[in-house]
Design a protein that fits this description.
Chain lengths: ~100, ~220
């Protein structure tokens, strides 16, 4: 039973769901293709993480239905999560410093 | 009792109101700030905390991967990358079946919802089986928690802890969906409950979208 004010909708149409499904698989194939191109590690990391973020956005928006929810919910959940992720990633460039510091 | 029922009907806050009066007199409940049920909000908050947990492991793995000069590249195109790509296909497809299960539940189609939930569970079981096969291949080649035959011993610990946590989520999800499927088939579980289980399952898929490129593709072996 719904609470007062709660909306009940069916979410994305079957066509949109299949489109997102195809998009996710297409991005996965692209990632596999890129992994065998022998790119520099930094570039590879940026490209693969960028594509993974696109996949995550598609899943959150359409499969997890967040695109169809109230903006207040999106603003409650996403900024806090993004802030914590940014705080973690701030320390990540230190790994490159560590790599170059090691004696050969 | 009749008097309790009558008193309960006066709503929340009445000193002799039945504890279930608020649920029965839904119109007197305070409207949800986010227009979703408390259970759904609770699941979203849990998923945000779980996302932070996985993010910490993924950042730690990536840090070790980049900082190590002899990080192994054990994943050949065949069978490892092919296997992992099939796992990705299976998990993404299981998310689609989960979305279809949620829609069937919202439309009141009990059997349809139960059927799509079983299909989702099957996808989860196939994913877990393929993943265990991958684990056994690496273990057979000598990879352990704190050693591996190719380079830095941290590879084993990082790989098994990250993928182990994910596979634990998959297995827990399969059990969770099984309980929801039984309830949905009998009409004892609401569409909201099916949707909430769908949130969890799609989150498991979402995490794999990061594990697949970071763990497998970044350590793919050329040739």
């Amino acid at each position: 039973m719904n609470q007062p004010g709660e909306r009940m909708d069916l979410g994305p149409s079957t066509g949109v769901v299949l489109l997102v499904w195809g998009g996710l698989l297409g991005i996965a194939v692209l990632e596999v293709f890129l992994s065998f191109r022998q790119l520099a590690i930094k570039l590879m990391l940026i490209l693969l993480m960028g594509l993974a973020m696109v996949q995550a956005t598609l899943i959150i928006s359409y499969f997890m239905h967040l695109r169809y929810e109230r903006r207040s919910l999106i603003l409650t959940l996403m900024p806090a999560l993004i802030f914590v992720l940014v705080m973690m990633v701030v320390f990540f460039p230190d790994s490159f410093r560590l790599y170059h510091m090691k004696a050969r | 009792m009749a008097s309790d029922e009558a008193m309960g009907a006066t709503g929340v806050g009445h000193p002799h109101a039945s504890p279930h009066a608020a649920e029965r007199s839904g119109s007197r409940m305070e409207a949800s700030l986010y227009a979703i049920s408390s259970r759904k909000l609770g699941m979203w908050l849990f998923l945000v905390s779980d996302a932070i947990t996985f993010a910490a492991l993924l950042v730690a793995y990536s840090y070790l991967r980049v900082a190590s000069e002899n990080w192994p590249r054990p994943f050949r195109f065949s069978p490892s990358i092919v296997n992992a790509t099939i796992m990705t296909f299976v998990l993404v497809t299981s998310s689609v079946t989960m979305v279809l299960a949620v829609r069937a539940a919202k439309e009141g189609r009990r059997r349809g919802a139960a059927g799509w939930l079983l299909a989702t569970m099957l996808g989860g079981v196939v994913f877990a089986a393929l993943h265990l096969r991958e684990w056994l291949t690496l273990i057979h080649e000598g990879v352990r928690l704190f050693q591996n035959p190719w380079g830095t011993p941290l590879f084993g610990a990082a790989f098994f802890s990250l993928t182990g946590l994910h596979i634990a989520h998959v297995c827990a999800g399969v059990i969770y969906l099984g309980a929801v499927a039984i309830g949905a088939g009998r009409g004892r579980v609401s569409a909201d409950a099916v949707e909430i289980s769908g949130l969890y399952w799609c989150f498991v898929d979402l995490v794999w979208m990061f594990i697949f490129p970071l763990v497998y593709l970044m350590s793919a072996r050329m040739g």
